[in-house]
């Protein structure tokens, strides 16, 4: 599944983010989404008609720079 992501025109109040623990694979669908600023699709999941993408955080700047250098190749 490949879906297009559009920026909402109305502001959404995100001061309180709902929490949901996914216990079963049947609770979500894996997919790829196209983000306007990115050339390649991004891995995501679809839950209750909402798309969520993934990211990975690193504490060390050297690791971030090494990964960023590989992605740009």
Q: How would you sum up this structure, described in words?
A:
The protein has one domain. The protein is built from 1 helix and 4 strands. It has a 4-stranded mixed sheet with strand order 1-2-3-4, with no helix packed on it. The chain is extended.
Explain briefly what this protein structure is.
The chain has 73 residues and is an alpha+beta fold. The protein has one domain.
Show the helix and strand layout.
Layout: E1 2-4, E2 29-34, E3 42-47, E4 50-53, H1 61-71
Parallel strand pairs: 1-2
Antiparallel strand pairs: 2-3, 3-4
Characteristic terms for this protein:
73 residues; alpha+beta; 4-stranded mixed sheet; 1 helix; 15% helix; 26% strand; extended
Radius of gyration: 15 Å
Total strands: the figure is 4
Number of helical regions: 1
* Biggest β-sheet description: 4 strands, mixed
**Integer count of domains:** 1
Global geometry: extended
Mean pLDDT: 77
Approximately what portion of the residues adopt beta-strand conformation? 25-35%
Order of helices and strands: EEEEH
Low confidence ranges? none
């Amino acid at each position: 599944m490949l879906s297009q992501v559009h920026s909402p025109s109305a502001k959404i109040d995100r001061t309180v983010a709902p929490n949901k623990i996914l216990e079963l694979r049947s609770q979500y669908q894996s997919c790829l989404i196209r983000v306007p600023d990115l050339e390649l699709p991004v891995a995501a999941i679809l839950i209750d008609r909402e798309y969520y993408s993934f990211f990975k955080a690193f504490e060390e700047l050297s690791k971030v720079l090494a990964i960023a250098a590989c992605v740009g190749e």
